[in-house]
Design a protein that fits this description.
Blueprint: E1 2-6, H1 11-22, E2 27-31, H2 41-44, E3 52-54, E4 60-62, H3 64-74, H4 84-112
Parallel strand pairs: 1-2
Antiparallel strand pairs: 1-3, 3-4
Helix pairs in contact: 1-3
The protein binds glutathione.
Residues 10, 12, 34-35, 49-51, 63-64, 98, 105 line the site of glutathione.
Length: 117
């Protein structure tokens, strides 16, 4: 069975979880915070970022657009159109959403930073 590693409040993890749920793909979900001292994320993703999808043969898939592509492929291209142009349009929306999430995550992290930092 597939295993998704992430956190409950990571927007990229949520995207991958929604793809798995909408595609009815059985999976385990493991919570691992990349900033925790005991995190195991770096064993699966050298960039030390979540989400990571672990396949049955232990291959790790990372970066959420790669994960969403993989999930859609194994589910028979249910959510992302197959034809080149429409696929590009959906992936373009994904890129915009990812860019907004990148900015939102940075704003949140900067707000949490202590004044002396
Ligand atoms: N481009 C990556 C971004 C993933 C990302 O930045 N995830 C954040 C959590 S929301 C992370 O793992 N940050 C590492 C950290 O907090 O140390 C993707 O789409 O998967």
């Amino acid at each position: 069975m597939l295993t998704l590693i992430g956190t409950l409040n990571s927007p990229y993890t949520r995207k991958a979880r929604l793809m798995l749920l909408e595609s009815n793909i059985p999976h385990h979900f493991i919570i691992d915070l990349p900033r925790d001292a005991n995190t195991k994320i770096v064993q699966y993703n050298p960039l030390k970022r979540i989400p990571v999808l672990i396949l049955e043969d232990k291959t790790s898939v990372f970066d959420s657009p790669v994960i969403t592509d993989y999930i859609d492929n194994i589910s028979g291209d249910k959510l992302i159109p197959k034809d080149t142009h429409n696929r590009m349009l959906v992936k373009r929306w994904e890129a915009i959403a990812d860019g907004i999430m990148d900015a939102a995550v940075q704003i949140r992290m900067e707000r949490d930073r202590k004044v002396e930092q």
